[in-house]
Amino acid sequence: MVKIAIAGGSGQVGREVIDALVATKKHEIVILSRNVKSAIGDNSSGITWRAVDYDNKNSLVEGLQGIHTVLSFIQLLADPQNTAQKNLIDAAIAAGVKRFAPSEWGSASAIDMPWWSGKDEIKEYLKKVNENGKVLEYILFQPGLFLEYLAAPYKTAKHLEPLGTMIDFQNRRAIVVEGHDAIMTYTTVKDVATIVARAVDLDVEWPVAGGISGNRVPISELLKIGEKVRGQAFTVEKVKLEDLEKGVLTASWTLAASHPSVAQDQIEKMMKVVLIGTLLSSAKGAWDVSDAFNQIVPDFKFTQIENFLAEVWEGKP
How far apart are CA 118 and CA 78, in angstroms? Predict the structure, then answer.
């Protein structure tokens, strides 16, 4: 049993992981909260809350006393200068925390995805704190895209909300980059949460590369699966890489659903940015994550993409 602190635990992915950790009945879970009123005990489920000020390192050091592992789910759009995460890392070191997982939970690279640019900055920050000798063991959990997003608009996880992508199963359509059959990684959030719960139990040192590869498929194969489970071919629109590089989207449609962290008056602009960024980054290999964690837990059976999608879309109009 170890004591685990969760930063950003009210978020969708964080809550999925918390549920998986609670289900093991092995660990004491501490949720760090900015809201003092929320910082109340809930020992019946093995969860306690601690009020912290992410702008105050001393507050964070106090909140991390006795913590073995920190899992961060801090929303990057709410921390544009990465102040909260940098302070959390510094405090973890000062408090003697052994393991740290920054707010990754996506692609192997943030190239052409400005909303995630903070991830690269945090990676460099973590490298720097260990440059003169290891003071903090850390891992980059990277599961690619959540497979549940291909079920949009249907909700198929307890906490993760549906989000549209460039492959739209509901409307049987897709946007692809001309000349690029991008490799995509899709992993269910449930599998990710289960893997994280297993990772916490590992006695071996965590690898920095924490790729979690549930399903690794080229776009062309995903479209074949889509045709099979949806009963007809998808309408595929091709866009040019050079247009996307200029911020020009020539497709006839864009994303609809947005993350709750996006301000209402910014949704339309953000959805275009996200779609362009996802298309560009996919063409440049950002979503082809490693299978590093698959090799650490070779017995784990990941949810298979075709089975998942067939079950979701069976009988759907």
Answer: 11
- CATH code for the part of the protein at 3-143+187-211: 3.40.50.720
CA dihedral sign, ordered 58, 59, 64, 69: negative
Q: Token pair 């003092």 is at which residue?
A: 36
Distance CA 211, CA 108 (A): 8
**Cβ 125 vs Cβ 139: under 8 Å:** no
**How many residues belong to the chain?**
317
pLDDT digits (tens, 9 = 90+) for 116-134: 999 999 999 999 999 999 9
The domain limits of the chain are: 3-143+187-211, 145-186+215-287+301-313
CA neighbours closer than 13 Å in the CB half-sphere of residue 52: 29
Number of alpha helices (DSSP H) and beta strands (DSSP E) in the chain: 10, 14
pTM of the predicted protein model? 0.94
At residue 309, the 3 state secondary structure works out as helix
pLDDT tens-digit series, residues 134-189: 999 999 999 999 999 999 999 999 999 999 999 999 999 999 999 999 999 999 99
Nearest to 292 by CA among 220, 219, 187: 187
Domain 145-186+215-287+301-313 sits in CATH 1.10.10? no
Structure tokens at 33: 């909260």
